[in-house]
Design brief:
Helix content: 40-55%
Number of strands: 11
Distance between the termini: 11 Å
Number of helices: 9
Radius of gyration: 19 Å
Strand order of the largest sheet: 7-6-3-8-9-10
Structural class: alpha/beta
Largest sheet: 6 strands, parallel
Length: about 260
């Protein structure tokens, strides 16, 4: 069994489950433009109906905007960070429904907005891996650890983003919300990943940037739940983390030998 070393502390493990957005890749760089685009389209549609958002624009998905409207931050416990595609669709469609748009039409409009916003995402391919991540993945591969992505995004989208970053080959499994019945913080996603990897949760480490990741891991019975918080202020949301790190330079995988 190999070990994950976290600031000098050693934790024997056989596998690592990593969240995607905000853990493997820079969340705002990828999803900030998407959120701005879809919120702007929704705002324009509401204006046509003669109304506006029922609350502050940033509170709809949990986004922080600069004076020019760019998304520069997000709430780690909000819909943008933790919601599935269907959940986010429901949140956005509700704004149209309260403006008098029939629910089925509201959902159709939001799905159309999403298609247009995602087309921009695919054109720019703005998925940027965090510094030090590739080193950790290389160490894990050399040490024989099994790796899986566990994400609230769809499996197809997650695989696409891994491909953009050149990280596909490092992961044995990719588990999106469409491969489980219940998403985070339910333990099903971690349990399914462990089952597919042929590992006991007790031999697995979870790394994620939201408390939903931590709760998922704890409820599944994993060895260790590591909160990933590059920005210090985000660490306050990781209430159930065993350990919180600021970057991948604080982590190292070592191969151990036993007779």
């Amino acid at each position: 069994m190999s070990e994950l070393v976290v600031r000098g502390q050693r934790f024997p493990c056989r596998g690592i489950l990593l969240d995607k957005d905000g853990t493997l890749l820079d969340f705002i760089q990828l999803w900030g433009p998407w959120a701005r685009s879809i919120l702007d389209m929704l705002e324009q549609q509401l204006a046509v109906a003669g109304t506006e958002f029922t609350a502050e624009k940033g509170s709809i998905l949990g986004t922080i905007h600069d004076p020019e409207g760019r998304v520069i931050g997000y709430d780690p416990s909000g819909p943008l960070a933790m919601g599935t595609v269907d959940e986010s669709t429901g949140v956005l469609a509700w704004q149209l429904y309260t403006a008098g748009v029939p629910w089925n039409e509201a959902v159709r409009l939001v799905r159309d907005f999403n298609k247009m916003a995602m087309a921009d995402i695919r054109r720019h391919r703005a998925a940027k891996a965090f510094p030090g991540l590739r080193t950790l993945l290389e160490q894990s591969r050399r040490a024989g650890l099994k790796l899986a992505v566990v994400t609230s995004d769809s499996t197809e989208a997650a695989q696409e983003h891994l491909e953009w970053m050149g990280l596909t080959s490092y992961f044995d499994e990719v588990i999106g919300h469409d491969r489980v019945t219940y998403g985070k913080p339910d333990p099903e996603m971690a349990e399914k990943a462990c089952d597919l990897l042929g590992l006991s949760p007790a031999d697995v480490v979870v790394i994620g940037d939201s408390n939903g990741d931590m709760q998922m891991g704890k409820r599944a019975g994993v060895r260790l739940a590591i909160g990933f918080a590059p920005e210090q202020e985000r660490s306050g949301h990781l209430l159930d983390a065993d350990i919180i790190v600021r970057g991948y330079e604080e982590l190292e995988v070592r191969e151990t030998w036993t007779k």
